[in-house]
Structure to design on (378 residues):
């Protein structure tokens, strides 16, 4: 094995695309295999708006989010794509440890404000709040569709090869590396295989790598029209009540008036990825979102103008899984909050492939196996 041997990456979502970018710009030959067509909606990396933020009740993720922002800006500069829309972020709710989140931001040097609910309602008209509200400007949205395109384009510019509509069916470690069998009868051989297949990672690695328990769920997401499209955009919001709700500016998916994207973080329907029912909307989730908007978001029309689905692949702790076993690199960093970290995940994958650099111990398989990874305070 040498640096001239290719690295095969399974999956061209945010994480696989970021891994391809990180490795290709280091001069490593890269082959990316993606089972779906460009721009598909079947996994976890589609859509024009994902929340980005520094606010975590967790020192590690607060710090890593800052490094990820630096890398996103680097990708924007090199690709010419507009990926981040920094309109700030809000956190509140009885289950949200707002003082702890504020303390983590302050410890990391991130500006933030704690506001009473009345002041927050006066500043962001059309929203209601309860308890203290935390605002920090280092938050907003990420255009995931554009990010995947930019990362893959930059990877290709550095020599990577990307093959869409070719599904990996098996990963076979060998004495010289690993072989990936494909649905079209072909195979990819490399000194290392990166499995960044999202919800499809477990069946691909069965009998190859022992993974922590992974729960795949289908989440319904809704776009609600703004009653005053000319009003300033609200920040991205995490509201930890019952249920836990997130909402954000919808980007192109929200139509010309930027309808608000809104969903429930924990209320997904368990599914098998091969039959996950793309586009099947959970009627109960819709009803809860409509009720939520009527109470908490009087600045929106509570009738959804658009609906879609997204897959979550989560560990019990919501920590990421990033490790190497022989010639196989496991890249499963989703858990419903991984999108914002994609370019940093790509750097960690490159470290695992090349042996140059460190990956946080908390993400390693042995940590998950020992049950020592704790629980992410989102």
């Amino acid at each position: 094995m040498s640096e001239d041997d290719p690295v095969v990456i399974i999956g061209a979502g945010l994480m696989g695309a970021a891994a391809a970018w990180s490795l290709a710009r280091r001069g490593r030959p890269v082959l990316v295999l993606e089972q779906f067509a460009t721009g598909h909606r079947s996994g976890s990396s589609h859509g024009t708006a994902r929340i980005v933020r520094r606010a975590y009740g967790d020192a590690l993720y607060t710090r890593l989010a800052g490094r990820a922002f630096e890398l996103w800006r680097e990708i924007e500069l090199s690709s010419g794509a507009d990926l981040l829309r920094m309109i700030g972020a809000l956190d509140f709710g009885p289950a949200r440890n707002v003082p702890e989140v504020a303390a983590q931001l302050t410890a990391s040097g991130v500006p933030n404000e704690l506001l009473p609910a009345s002041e927050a309602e006066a500043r962001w008209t059309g929203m209601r709040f309860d308890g203290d509200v935390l605002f920090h400007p280092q938050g907003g949205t990420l255009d995931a569709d554009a990010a995947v395109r930019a990362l893959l384009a930059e990877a290709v510019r550095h020599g990577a090869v990307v093959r869409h509509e070719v599904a990996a069916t098996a990963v076979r470690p060998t004495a010289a590396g690993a072989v990936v069998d494909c649905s079209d009868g072909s195979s990819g051989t490399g000194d290392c295989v990166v499995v960044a297949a999202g919800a499809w990672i477990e069946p691909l690695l069965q009998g190859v790598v022992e993974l922590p328990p992974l729960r795949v769920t289908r989440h319904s997401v809704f776009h609600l029209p703004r009653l005053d499209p000319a009003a300033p955009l609200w920040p991205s919001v995490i509201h930890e009540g019952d249920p836990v709700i997130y909402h954000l500016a919808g980007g192109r998916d929200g139509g010309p008036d930027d309808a608000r994207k809104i969903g429930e973080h924990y209320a997904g329907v368990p599914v098998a990825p091969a039959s996950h029912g793309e586009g099947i909307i959970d009627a109960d989730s819709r009803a809860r979102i409509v009720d939520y908007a009527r109470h908490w978001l009087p600045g929106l029309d509570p009738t959804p103008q658009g609906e879609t689905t997204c897959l979550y692949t989560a560990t019990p702790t919501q920590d990421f899984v990033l490790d190497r076993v022989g010639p196989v690199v496991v890249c499963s960093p989703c858990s419903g909050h991984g999108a914002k970290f994609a370019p940093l995940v790509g750097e960690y994958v490159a470290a695992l492939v090349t042996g140059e650099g460190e990956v946080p111990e908390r993400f390693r398989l042995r940590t998950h196996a020992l049950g020592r990874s704790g629980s992410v305070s989102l």
